[in-house]
Automatic annotation (TrEMBL):
<protein>
    <submittedName>
        <fullName>Uncharacterized protein</fullName>
    </submittedName>
</protein>
Amino acid sequence: MSTDITNSGSSRRGRENQFKFLTSGTINKTEWLKKYLLKQGILVNSLYISGIIEELNHMRRSQQLLGELTWEELIKKMKKSYQTANYRASKPTRRTVAITLSAECINSIEKFAKSNKITKNLAVEELINDNFNLYFEKYKKLKHQEKIAREQNKSIELIEIKGTLKGEIKKLESVIKYKDKSIELMKIELDFLFKKLTSLAYEKKDIELDEFLEIQEKYFDCISRVNDSCKYFS
């Protein structure tokens, strides 16, 4: 006997908890619920949500008839409407869009809505938002990959520039070595000219034309090389 009483009490509490969804949300619950119940032909007197829920539970316990709907159907319908009202309240800027979907797509949306216990409108929005989030994640990933590619290209360009500079440095070193050799040769030739002229002056000999022309040629050749070196390094 006590078991039957316990089961009966648990069952009653379970039925009363079916209105628990009305205690959550952001909209004016009392105002919304009164208007909704009035549309269903149910008039309540309480001013607070807890009192209205108690009235509804009392009607259920007394098995008050609702016309075509059963209490279970009413609660199920009320819950969906309440969820929709709260969702709309949290998203004030909303627009209606008319779209045509295939029967397969509609069935998938209905299954998704049923499995998540939400309205079809909310199901469509969640599916769209999830896909947009997925798209933006892919977009950010693509941008990150592009940034990496740009950095890699910069590294390749720097390596190429470095290689080019190394080549130019080697060329310059070769030119400098060549110039150093030219300078050494000029020193030798100038030293030769100086000694030749000193010797002739010391011996007080006249310079023959061929010898003079040879000295003159060497002199101008040295001057020309000096000028070339100055042009290169200027």
